[in-house]
Amino acid sequence: MTEIHQVLVGAGQTDAITNMARVLREALRTLGQTEIYAQHPAPGVDDVLPLGQFPRDGSAGRTIVFHASGGDPDVFELLDSVAERIVLIFHNIAPAEQFDDVDPSRAEMLRLGWRELEQLHPKVCLAIADSKHNAKCLTAIGYEDVKVIAAGVDAYRLHRLTPDPAMWHRLGHEVHGPLLMYVGQSVPHKRPEVLVQMQYLLTRHVGRFPSLAMVGPPTVPVVNAAALEQARVLRVPGCLFYGQLTDSELAAVYRRADLFVTASMHEGLCIPILEAMAAGVPVVGRSVGALPDTVGDAGLLLPVDAGPEMFAEAVGELLDDESLRRRMAYQGRQRLRDFDEAAATAAFLDVLAGVV
Amino acid sequence: MPTNADDLDEVLERIRDSVQERRDAGDYPPGLEQQLDRHYHHILKGFDAEVEAITALRLAVANLRAQSEFDLARVDTWSKNPVKRLLHRIIGKLTIRQTRGVLTQLQLFSNALDEVLASLVPMVESLAGSGTKGDGRERGDLDKRLHTALDRIGLLEERLDRSLEASDDLSV
């Protein structure tokens, strides 16, 4: 019987990579036995098995699909020691130098991630990247014939959900004026503080009063705490730090939002932007990493060195131009045709068939 | 009608112009972005240093507590030389009352020190701003606001200098 198991470093209830693995699991079930294993499953994640339970006595006929997004010695030890073929799905690795000051141990794990990818190379029978940008990064360290497939991306996942009524009610009370939203982990390279500073400029210097919803887990707590503290000390109005939300709560925020804004300096694909496009929310970001390919004309990409002043002006420009926002929303839906879940899954199964 | 790259280039150009206009009009004072960035990093660094200092203090206190169990059994009487070993044991037996007395005094002192530290550590944490309530938090806030105010005064001084230079030029 065919056995294809997926291995992740971490797994979360609402984590993007875990969700991609869940989508792929449904597809892989049609081929045979399949499970998702993770070294660090978050509490409450009961559909992912701890990596310690991975059966090491497997035959050489078994295949492991490894989702790479960072380093982990235990995961590497398993992948390096087993006889199985490895299919690599590369989601990119955050820039380690951004973590040196705030979380040195995480920075070391990120550097380790690149070294592990190089060492695993001889065992990888198929390399897949979920964006052209990520494929380039993988090619740069010696991988060849990298397939670009956004396998497991379900951009309309939240759009199909009924927005959480309590969250909808809360937004009704807390949001005044247009709603700008950001979704992402609190990590240094996502630069959440630039959005707080943008909101400061909008409200104190430009005379606009939107609300800004910041959503996502405090992965590096000090980054989140410092952004929140700056908002508090500068008395920035309308900053709503919601932290980690459930899918239906997040669906409510997307439904209410006017613009999705991110100041991130590094993106391998950016699932929240795809989800914004699915919800018809135009995007403002920087022209970095995979964003030009992901966003295209469905948003406004500012230069890499854009600061809060330019972000504030861009937000003002888009809030003033409803027609442009509508055109961007339309363009977003058009672009999502390139991220069709069924087509990507079929392409994934097709290339997988070549090696299994 | 879909957007196209030309549309977006035009919008970007307008945004650049607007930023420049606001800078020229003084809505965005010179160095504002750098000031906000410095302010954020000051907060970030403060959080980091506080967390590190508090962690070091907690570890030091835990280490002190681990060393605070005084016991006769921990007084070493062993020696390679069997005669010396015997001698140490005999002296130990002869001075057991005095040794116990010293150990009891040390234990009492250690217990008192432990009580002092138990009261001091939360106060230090609060003063460092690692707590979420109390006067320490307010002191931390004041410190950060003062830093922001000083930054702004610096900015105003720069503008004043430039204005004076400009008026000098005009008078010439």
As a whole number of angstroms, the C-alpha radius of gyration of chain A is 20 Å
In the CATH scheme, the class of the largest domain in chain A would be Alpha Beta
Main pleated sheet of chain A: 7 strands, parallel
For CATH, the homologous superfamily of the largest domain in chain A is named as Glycogen Phosphorylase B
Please indicate the percent range of residues of chain A in DSSP E strands (runs of 2 or more).
Answer: 15-25%
| Number of discrete domains of chain A | 2
Roughly what fraction of the amino acids of chain B lie in strands? Answer: under 5%
Rg measurement of chain B, Å: 33 Å
CATH topology label of the largest domain in chain A: Rossmann fold
Structural class of chain A: alpha/beta
Tell me which CATH architecture of the largest domain in chain A applies here. 3-Layer(aba) Sandwich
Q: Can you offer a commentary on this structure?
A:
The complex is a heterodimer of chains A (356) and B (172). Chain A is built from 13 helices and 13 strands. Chain A is of the alpha/beta class and 356 residues long. Chain A folds into two domains: 4-152, Rossmann fold, CATH 3.40.50; 165-338, Rossmann fold. In chain A, α6 packs across α11 and α9 crosses α12. Chain B has one domain (35-171). Chain B is 80% helix and 0% strand. At the A-B interface, α6, α7, β13, α11 and α12 of A face α1, α2 and α5 of B.
